[in-house]
Q: What sequence folds into this?
């Protein structure tokens, strides 16, 4: 099969969808012809191209000039549309990362130009609490009709597409390399309970809530021996730096190379993810593959993975006190019952290995691609 992945940003920008495409491509290129097309847009460049191509052995990658409207993601420069279409149509299947307003509208307008089958890959969703995204929803629904099939990471998006009347919907979650992200028992004499946040420093990732949680733990709960480690980059970087300067127990690492992340996870005791919208965050799976319990927002993508009360704690979006109290609960368990804490770490990892190991997920994705390429669609 010839499979092309399209993402409306540069691969150097990183992020969950980019990491997913890179990982899936590395696996599929052993048996299929894989290409990736991106646009030359990145809020903050994370990887240099020299580093990027270390991950793209035998995978074709082309990046096109773009224009960035005031709202939404970048769009291809109109001068390059013909070249883009020729690349897309050379493939049997074209996988497009969604939602990416107004990319789906562009594909709808160009629907007669496509020869390859189009797959909409839902790696997040529109937010109902943002007025412009809410107003965009009717346009979004109409634009989705151009696609031949739909791949979703979480149950709620799957149910929404089914209820809305779309066919050929595949629910296949994100996956994690459980050999790279291994369980590691922290030293029993560790002084600090290390609470980790990693990801893009944006409002939709709940970084504003993260700042408030840190403040609440330090000033209201006044817990000793709790450390916060923050890894990532993005528009709210300066606010994170300010909090790190204010509190001695906050360590801001900035952007961390993916190769270093397994060590970062294994030095932590708890993973914090106060996001407002997710598809299914890879960082969550990586953390739990290392055995970390999670305190996360009770939203689709996170609630698909975390078993509330067993492998983590689910808290309402923006409930700063709820997040802080959950951090306190795990800190006290770690402090008072280290053996029980480690047994929980092992159970968390076992759950991830059974259900989200990349080898399992890749096999399911390959079957999806084969069914779309060789079978008649509904």
A:
């Amino acid at each position: 099969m010839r499979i092309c992945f399209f993402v409306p940003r540069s691969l150097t920008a990183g992020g969950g969808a980019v990491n997913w495409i890179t990982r899936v491509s590395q696996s599929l290129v052993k048996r299929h012809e894989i290409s990736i097309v991106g646009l030359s847009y990145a809020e903050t460049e994370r990887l240099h191209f020299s580093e990027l191509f270390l991950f793209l052995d035998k995978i074709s990658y082309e990046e096109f000039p773009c224009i960035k409207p005031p709202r939404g993601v970048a769009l291809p420069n109109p001068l390059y549309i013909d070249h883009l279409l020729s690349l897309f149509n050379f493939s049997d299947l074209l996988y497009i990362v969604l939602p990416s307003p107004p990319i789906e509208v562009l594909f709808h307008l160009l629907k007669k130009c496509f020869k390859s089958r189009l797959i909409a890959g839902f790696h997040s969703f529109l937010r109902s609490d943002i007025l412009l995204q809410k107003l965009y929803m009717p346009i979004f629904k109409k634009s989705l009709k151009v696609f031949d099939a739909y791949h979703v990471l979480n149950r709620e998006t799957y149910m929404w597409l089914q209820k809305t009347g779309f066919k050929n919907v595949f629910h296949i979650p994100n996956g994690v390399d459980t050999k790279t992200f291994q369980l590691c028992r922290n030293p029993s004499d560790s002084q600090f309970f290390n609470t980790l946040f990693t990801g893009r420093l944006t409002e939709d990732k709940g970084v504003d809530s993260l700042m408030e949680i840190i403040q609440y733990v330090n000033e209201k709960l006044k817990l000793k021996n709790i450390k916060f480690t923050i890894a990532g980059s993005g528009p709210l970087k300066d606010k994170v730096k300010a909090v790190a300067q204010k509190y001695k127990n906050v360590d801001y690492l900035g952007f961390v190379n993916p190769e270093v992340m397994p060590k970062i996870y294994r030095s932590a005791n708890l993973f914090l993810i106060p996001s407002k919208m997710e598809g299914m965050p890879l960082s969550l799976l990586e953390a739990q593959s290392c055995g970390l319990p999670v305190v996360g927002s009770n939203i689709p993508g996170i609630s698909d993975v975390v078993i509330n009360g067993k492998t983590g704690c689910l808290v309402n979006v923006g409930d700063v006190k709820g997040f802080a109290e959950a951090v306190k609960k795990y800190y006290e368990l770690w402090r008072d019952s280290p053996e029980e804490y480690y047994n929980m770490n092992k159970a968390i990892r076992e759950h991830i290995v059974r259900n989200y190991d990349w080898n399992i997920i890749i096999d399911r994705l390959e079957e999806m691609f084969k069914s779309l390429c060789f079978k008649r669609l509904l």
Q: What stands out?
A: The CA atoms of residues 128 and 135 lie 9 Å apart. The first helix runs from residue 16 to 28. The two ends are 20 Å apart (CA to CA). The chain is about 40% helix and 20% strand.
